[in-house]
What we know:
Elements (H helix, E strand, L loop, with lengths): L2 H15 L6 E6 L2 E7 L2 H4 L6 H9 L4 H4 L2 E5 L5 H9 L4 E4 L9 H6 L3 E4 L3 H13 L1 H7 L6
Parallel strand pairs: 3-4, 4-5
Antiparallel strand pairs: 1-2, 1-3
Helix pairs in contact: 7-8
Amino acid sequence: MNKFFKVAMNEALEGLNEGGIPIGSVLVHKDKIISQGHNRRIQKGSVILHAEMDALENASRQHEHVFHECTLYTTLSPCSMCSGAILLYKIPRVVIGENKNFKGEEELLISRGVDVKVLQNPECIEMMSKFIKNNKKLWDEDIGQISL
């Protein structure tokens, strides 16, 4: 497992241990982590703090060329909001842990020139499927679906 992806996995586990949704993300520039984060929607009572948004927020303001040279590692396929931020900041590469439990806007990212790699990591798949099974209403809220 790639060292940066391991950090994203640890972020996801930290979120789960905090009572949140287990998704982690890491922003890497020139082989160095410049920020990391995890889904903190529950912990912060936020509507937007998905893991990718948390990692971008934690990166603080950067010269635009920095984002243009980054790779974003995330344990789950990015939703439309997070994909929009990836496109806005022109992040050229995204490494995704898995998209079996949720397939976000990968096609949009690819169509806009982003290099997308999906790992289908078994640990990610299992962690998310267990979480979704045990927290359906919370999961539906996170992805903007109506829970029945």
